[in-house]
Amino acid sequence: MSVVVAGVGMIPFATPRTSGTYHEMGAEAARRALADAGIGIADVAQAYAGYVYADSAAGQTALYGVGPTGIPVVNVNNWCASGSTALWLGRQAILSGAAECVLVLGFEQMARGAIAPTYLDRPDALWRFTELLGDEEPEAPVAARFFGAAGQAYLDRYDAEATLFAEVAVKARRHARANPAAVFRDPVTVEEVLGSPHVFGPLTRLQCCPPTCGAAAAVLCTEDFARRRGLDGSVRIRAQAMTSDRADSFEGDAMALVGAGIARRAADAVYEEAGVSPEDIPVAELHDCFTANEVISYEALRLTREGTAAQFVRDGQNTYGGRVVTNPSGGLLSKGHPLGATGLAQCTELVQQLRGRAGERQVEGATLALQHNLGLGSACVVTLYESLRR
User: Fold this and answer.
1) pLDDT at position 375
2) Please, what's the b/e burial string for 57-77 (b: 16 or more CB within 10 A of its CB; e: otherwise)?
3) φ/ψ (deg, to 5) at 357
4) What is the mean pLDDT of the chain?
5) 348 Cβ neighbours under 8 A, 6+ residues apart
6) Which residue from 44, 58, 125, 221 has the least number of CB within 10 angstroms?
7) In 3D, which of 224, 287, 225 has the Cα closest to residue 258?
8) φ and ψ at 35, to 5 degrees?
9) pLDDT tens digits for range 247-281
């Protein structure tokens, strides 16, 4: 049995200065997904809500704006992979036979500035990671230190130039130009990216995703439910895997520390489950929280061979006309990164791509789409979507 994505919805992302509250945003995204599916909240058996910066039971608070139904609402907090973890749980519920139709929701009302620890009176969930990080430039944002160190490790290992990462930022803005839901849509040049304020290692400000606020949602159901209710059953989750750290994440490799290994294991499991090859993937939404992570993820997901990302980018294989269009939405670098919403925003983009409804962003002929959503601490969810339209 496969799981149908019967409806998706998201609101345009916004800066913390201009956004609404998390419960308003979450309710609106849920309403849009339900309307897209053509059903009401009363048709939903369970709901899963992903977020990071809100109190317990925030999912119920968001869904009260749609209607208090009495259904089970499961709240999910899994760092930057919270939205796709909720998606993973919703799919599990359907595959297990526990529900025929579920609503999966992700939202975040972010504060301005870089992410910082919230609780200072207890152990940090990332303590094993920060122990390995070292004390270079401790004033830099901690996430930038992780991914900047990983980016520098990549450049050193493969004798690549820092312009590699800057080119990814340029591509992100070029794609975002056609996405009204993205916050940052103005084009940039490699020179502007490299000339923006230094953050850590090879990373500059324009290579770091900004904190934004937003929400996105999806309706999942069984094939039989979609058929009985006359819903659009053309896009399905063909395969999905979720992984966390093993011992090798902490053995001194800066790229493994930020999820390269767990991403590869998740991707390999998805390819095996689906019986497809990485070469079969025409479009992907990757977790580009920093330009360095997009480059590392190309290879972790086997979209290009190890050590070949520079040539892959230089030849335009990561954009329209190339082998695989990566982040047609503009990615986190252009949309921003409202943590709990990110995974379901990726889902929304890829479902619209497979429906042929992505407008100027459309990847022609795409029938498969790959999603990669990563949270340190750690969780990685890789999802393969399939369209039955031919």
Assistant:
1) 97
2) ebbebbbeebbebebebbbbb
3) -120, 25
4) 96
5) 8, 9, 10, 216, 218
6) 125
7) 287
8) -65, -40
9) 999 999 999 999 999 999 999 999 999 999 999 99
Half-sphere exposure (CA, 13 Å, Cβ side) for 369? 34
- Alpha-helical segments (H) within the chain: 22-37, 58-63, 82-96, 127-133, 142-158, 163-176, 190-195, 223-229, 254-257, 260-274, 291-300, 309-314, 331-335, 339-355
Distance CA 248, CA 112 (A): 34
10 three-state secondary structure: strand
Q: Report the distance separating Cα 30 and Cα 367, nearest Å.
A: 26
Q: Tell me the one-letter amino acid at 313.
A: V
Q: What percent of the chain has pLDDT over 90?
A: 91
The C-alpha atoms of residue 94 and residue 92 are separated, in whole angstroms, by 5
What gap in Å lies between CA 63 and CA 49, rounded to an integer? 9
Model pLDDT for residues 378-389, shown as the tens digit of each residue: 999 999 999 997
Residue 390: pLDDT band (50, 70, 90) is low
Q: What's the 3-state SS for 93-126?
A: HHHHCCCCEEEEEEEECCCCCCCCCCCCCCCCCC
Longest dimension (CA), the chain: 59
Residue 213 zone, left/alpha/beta (φ > 0; ψ -120 to 50; rest):
beta
- For CA atoms 255, 258, 261, 264, the dihedral sign is negative
